[in-house]
Amino acid sequence: MNGTRYSLAQGKDWYHFNGDTELLGRFLEVYDGETVLDIGCNQGALLYYAKEKADIIGIGVDVFSEVLESAKENAIYNRVNFQFVCSRIQEYKAELVDVIVCNPPYFSGDIKNNNLYLDTARREKYLPLRDLMEAVHRLLKGNGRFYIVQKAEKIGSMIEEAHEQGLSCVRMGLAYAHVHSKAKTVLMEFKWGQRKDCLVEKAIYLDQR
């Protein structure tokens, strides 16, 4: 995993962590002792990025039990003590957490992938944005932070849905394929409350990384 001391074994047919995972992992901020919840965790890659930065308590939630069994094996190999729970986030109940992270499904429409692992990871119907934001509202502490990566054109939808749940975007990063391209990806940090200001980080050019 780029930027960490960790390595993950991943099943051939499963959704693999990608450049967006790395971007979000580098963007998020965590501190010693915080509990970090990764929604749709797969192998828990985002938890490892968090662990690289601080001594966190990591919890990953995913819908595929066989993927989580592999995630547990990876945790043993990497000598970390993460907890993995098989559940839809819509039904997940637990104590409030300090930080929530998510690399969510991006794609809408009816184009189906015959690989159920990939289809679930990519299509919004399995985790609609509203359901995700409602889960954040239910599970995030009052002083907590929520980090997400999305397609850049969904900034407006993200801010609108977050506003309905009482959250505001306080920090944002934009990634571009190259210096002359439109923004491809947005990284966002949300906190509770209606805030007017949002820090925009230095642009990320993917061809220069």
Automatic annotation (TrEMBL):
Q: Which Pfam families match?
A: Methyltransf_31
Positions of the Methyltransferase domain = 32-163
State the InterPro entries in the record.
DNA_methylase_N6_adenine_CS (IPR002052), Methyltranfer_dom (IPR025714), SAM-dependent_MTases_sf (IPR029063), tRNA_Adenine-N(6)_MTase (IPR050210)
* PROSITE patterns, per the entry: N6_MTASE
Gene Ontology molecular function, alphabetical: methyltransferase activity; nucleic acid binding
Region forming the signal peptide: none
Q: Which GO biological process entries does UniProt record here? A: methylation
Family matches, as CDD domains: AdoMet_MTases
PANTHER family associated with the record: TRNA1(VAL) (ADENINE(37)-N6)-METHYLTRANSFERASE
Q: What is this protein called?
A: Methyltransferase domain-containing protein
Species assigned in the record? Bulleidia extructa W1219
Taxonomic lineage is: Bacteria, Bacillati, Bacillota, Erysipelotrichia, Erysipelotrichales
